[in-house]
Task: structure prediction
Amino acid sequence: MHGGRMSGKHSGKPTRQLLFSQALQHLRAPSPTSEVHPTTPPSNMADQTQGATMDRILQEISTVGRRLEGMDSAMASLTVETKSMRLDIAGFQSRVRGPEQQVTTVETHITSSQDRDQDLIYLRSKLIDLKDRSCRDNVHFFGLSENIECADLHSYLGPK
Result:
């Protein structure tokens, strides 16, 4: 018991609180176990001073109790707010998952498109090379006799 209240852990069970007004009544009531010394005569002045001091202490305790009760209600509203924020965050997380998956899909598609582009560039250059080779193999020379030997080729093609 701390400060006149019993608090349970956050296990979902309601907490029991001893209100300060009830605690003050317990404090003001005389204790049945208090001992009375018959040899000591009661002093009215000391009793009045102690009574005034006790009243001030009880007033302070009551003030602190009201403050703590106000803090309890503020803490309860903060707990509600925190739970609400947790639910909001969970909702935001679920909303963000969809676009994240879409972005991942688009990135995969872009990567595969870039790979296909590289393949197309390679195939285009290969096609150009094959077309050039095909054209070289199909060169026809007109006006040359087919029985020219390689040794006579320079003299045959040279300046006349």
Helices lie at 20-28, 44-137, 153-157.
